[in-house]
Structures are given as C-alpha cells and as structure tokens.
Amino acid sequence: MHSLLLFIVTACARPATPSTVVVRDARAFEAHQGGTGAAYVTIINGTDSTEALDSVTSARSRFVSAHAQRETNGYVTMTPLDHPTIAAHDSLVFTPGSDHLMLEDLDRDLKAGDQVPLTFWFHRAGPRQVTALVTPYGS
Amino acid sequence: MRTLLSCLALLSVAACGRGREPAPDPKTDPYKGLELLQPMGKPNFTLTDLDGHDFNFRHETDGYLTLLFFGYTNCPDVCPLHMANIGAVLRAAPPEVANRVKVVFVTTDPERDSIPILKAFLGRFSPQIIGLTGTPAEIEAAEQAARLLPAYRDTVNKLPSGGYSVGHAAQVLAFTPDDSLRVIYPFGIRQQDWADDIPKLVRVGMPR
User: Could you tell me the pTM of the whole model?
Assistant: First the structure.
C-alpha cells in the first residue's frame, strides 16, 4: 500500500517529461511553389544540458531558417535566430504570429493534407526527423 | 510631415492608452480592435489593381467597410494570417454583411510581387480581397496617405537564400462605411475578433 501511495505521489509531482530532445506538434501552412512558407513546432529539451539547434533541413525547401518575429512601433520585423539554444528541461515554441520556421523556395505547392518532412539538427542530440501536416492559413 | 507625425502620434496615443487599460467592457467598447480617440478621414491615393486598371482607393471603396493592409507575398506569417483570418470570417458571414466589405491588400514588395503572384497569393484567402500594386514611390505615397510609416527592405538580416524580408506596418486599418478610419487591428488579432467586429463595423454610419 505504501508503495502504491508513493507511486501516485511521485506521478503527480513530476509530470512525464522526455529525457531527450523531442520535436513535436509540427505543422505548416499552405504555400505556393517557389514561394515562402512557414512551419511551426515545439522543441522540448528533456536533458540536463543546454541544447542548440544548429539547422533545419527539408526536402521541400532549399532554405529553412528560424526567425523571431516582433512588432515594434507598429512595424512587424523578422530577425534570424542563429543557433537558438534551449535550456535544460525547457522548450522552444514556434507558433503562428510569433517565432516561426521560414521555408524558402518551395519545390512544390503545399496544399492542405500534404506532409512536409523536416529534420532538426541539434548540436548534442543529433538529428530529429518529424513530419509537418499542411493546413490552410488561419485554421 | 508635421501632419503625418501628428497623426502617427494620435494613433500611438490611442493604442498605448488602450494597452494600459483593463479588459474592454463590451458595453462601452464594442470593438476588439483599437478604436481611435478621434476618427480620421479616408486617404486618397491611386494604385493599380490586378487587372491593370487604376484604382482610386477613396472612390472605389466609398460607402463600404474597407479593411486596408500593406504587406507582401513572401511574408511567411503575419500577412497571410491577417488575410486568412479576414477571408475565413467573410466566407462565414451572411451576404448582407460580406457584400458590404472591401478588403484591400497593397504590396510593399512590388519588385517581386508580380500580378500573377499577387493573384495566386490572395486567391488562396478570398476572392473578395483586392490586390494593388504600383511603383515603390506610389506605394510609399499611399502609405503616407494612410498615415503609416513606409515599408523598407531589410538589407541587414539577409535570408539564407540571399533574399530579403520587408519590414512593414503590422496593422489592418478599418474604414467604416462613413469613410472614417475608426479602428486599427494590430498584429495578433484573432479570427474571432474579426467575426465579432465586422458585423458591427458595416453598420457604422447607417441610419438607425
């Protein structure tokens, strides 16, 4: 009985977190061939060390880059995120209307229902492959 | 220039003042966007529409709720999100509302945004969106007429492709059917906010 109680207390006190680097919730919006698209993911660093995202690659886009997007004095501007770091047991979120992954020079139209392969190259953990589902903008 | 700065200051006062206040009371503040303290007139500028014809903004939108935005098609996030949110709300709106709205998208990147590219980009969101282009000087004049700071090509932060992004105004300007700029919709406005406000905005200036 004591063991069972201990298990329950432990389970409640410490939500399950991955003990490695995980990329999840990948999605992208519709875009045209040759144009620019956007993808969004959540990166969770479940390790005890700071992690850095060295690069992102995709078979659909010749150039994938991470950008911070901010509004300053009514202007919206983008700033490249160069090797963004994720502290131990922290996360980095790319979400519509904020930081995002820019997909330049798309090799085909991205239509709702399509899947975009993305490989995230981490400095310590190495590559992580995910597939982003394409949805219409605003969905 | 003094007039332009005065107008921008007024916009700033309205926006900043709202930001410090608690959540708006829907009984006293019906809009989800930022309502100007003092409505302003509709700008007068002429650009080129996607059929190659002159489009005088004030004349062509007279009497309509008009949503004006300056952006570009290689913009990966805020521009398509604004257009998609508005397009989705117009598709769901009853015709008596949707037919009284004009949405105008002016490119801030005329060099890359050819007419076919603009048509393909805007067509993805709504056939109701009117695309406009012009020379850089014409577009800058339109921005100034709309009391916005001019867009600029970001030559500092080069993209990996060697291309560039464009810094531009983040807001959608809402001109009510009485041809007054009354509400500004900032970056981050939600689709539901448009759904709440557009039916109210189309009634402004109508007889009770």
Answer: 0.83
